[in-house]
Amino acid sequence: MIWRWAPAAYAIAPGDALVQLTDERGIDARPAWSPDNRTIAYQSNREGNYHIYLMNPDGTNKRALTQGATDNRHPIWMADGKTILFDSFNGTHREIFSVNVADGNIKQLTRLGASANFPAPSPDGKWMTFYLFKNEVLDLWKARIDGSDAKPLTREMASSAANQCTFACHHAGWSEDGRNIVYSAGELDTIWMVASENGTPQKIIDDGEDNHFPWFLPDGRVGYITEHIEPSNAWTDFWAYDLKTGKRDLLQTRMAMQGPLAWSNDYRRVLFPSPRGGNFDIYLIDLDADGGTDALQGKNAKSVRIITPAPAGAPARAPTVAPQEDNTSLIVGGALGFGAVLALVLFFALRKRK
């Protein structure tokens, strides 16, 4: 990989295929596009605790949206682009909150007295899903957007007693009509779907591969990521599954990063965090730029390293709580040499033992 330094440039030059958007201390992860693709939300522990930050798509205008002793993670935008949902730990419990992007006003939405995380709003903004870990059992839950009428959509989706993975690692995905929800289950290799109203979970992808991070594509198909690990190589594939016909289409192959990925509305730009520069930072790949596909596949892609200050801005008020250990499933990418592949294999193995 060739780095082209541009320390004085605070904007991406047209045509750059691979761009580093953050360059701060700590871990920057979980990027999420706003509905209009004009703003990126992400989580960062650059100041100690994880908090929600915003920046422009070119890496400029970084600012904190939350602050304080909270541990705030997994931002996701409401469809109106005015509110972001996230989960926050108070030293005892993790609950779902919302924050107003314009004024930083924070509201607590759930009070379940357990560990709730990865909120996902319905397209109409009236409901949300999230994962709840309680009594050593992980399930997918649904509630009104204000946190009321909370109830489980699954029953013992994963449990410690069954030696399954009991921490969530992605947002569930809503269909455009709000009728169906897709998610990954505790065995870490199957894709499931459940109706949002009184549904019974159904396994829709079970092919023996490591399948993760499902979501609904604009055409109604289910997108998901398949991970591949070999002794000297590792990559991911992006698939689309037709619920009506059962047909699967390979949309992108041999991608040099782990999911989940954050795609723009037109699926021509993708955000992901990576430690390729020595620290977990957020990168952008533009498939329409010269070398875009090569960058996606880690083939000697040129990169612009954007170094911008991270102004504090006007952080929002936040409840005073203690931090929590990070169990975030981080995205690994880049032109992978043998050492990087070995680290990636160890990462996957350790993740699946949790």
CATH homologous superfamily, by name? Answer: TolB, C-terminal domain
Basic shape? globular
Question: What is the fold-level CATH name, i.e. the topology?
Answer: Neuraminidase
CATH architecture: 6 Propeller
Outline:
The chain has helices spanning 292-296, 338-353, and strands spanning 2-5, 18-20, 28-33, 40-44, 51-55, 63-64, 71-77, 83-89, 94-100, 106-108, 115-121, 127-134, 137-144, 151-152, 158-159, 173-174, 180-184, 191-195, 202-205, 210-216, 222-230, 233-241, 248-255, 262-263, 269-274, 281-286, 302-305. With 354 residues, it is mainly β.
Structure description:
- The chain is mainly beta.
- The protein has one domain: TolB, C-terminal domain (Neuraminidase, 6 Propeller).
- Helix content is 6%, strand content 40%.
- It contains two helices and 27 strands.
- It has helices at 292-296, 338-353; strands spanning 2-5, 18-20, 28-33, 40-44, 51-55, 63-64, 71-77, 83-89, 94-100, 106-108, 115-121, 127-134, 137-144, 151-152, 158-159, 173-174, 180-184, 191-195, 202-205, 210-216, 222-230, 233-241, 248-255, 262-263, 269-274, 281-286, 302-305.
- The strands form six sheets. The chain has a six-stranded mixed beta sheet. Strands 11, 12, 13, 14 and 15 form a five-stranded antiparallel beta sheet that branches.
- Strand 16 (173-174) and strand 17 form a beta hairpin.
- Mean pLDDT is 85; it is low at 1-13 and 310-354.
List the helices and strands and how they pair.
Elements: E1 2-5, E2 18-20, E3 28-33, E4 40-44, E5 51-55, E6 63-64, E7 71-77, E8 83-89, E9 94-100, E10 106-108, E11 115-121, E12 127-134, E13 137-144, E14 151-152, E15 158-159, E16 173-174, E17 180-184, E18 191-195, E19 202-205, E20 210-216, E21 222-230, E22 233-241, E23 248-255, E24 262-263, E25 269-274, E26 281-286, H1 292-296, E27 302-305, H2 338-353
Parallel strand pairs: 1-27, 2-27
Antiparallel strand pairs: 2-26, 3-4, 4-5, 5-6, 7-8, 8-9, 9-10, 11-12, 12-13, 13-14, 13-15, 16-17, 17-18, 18-19, 20-21, 21-22, 22-23, 24-25, 25-26
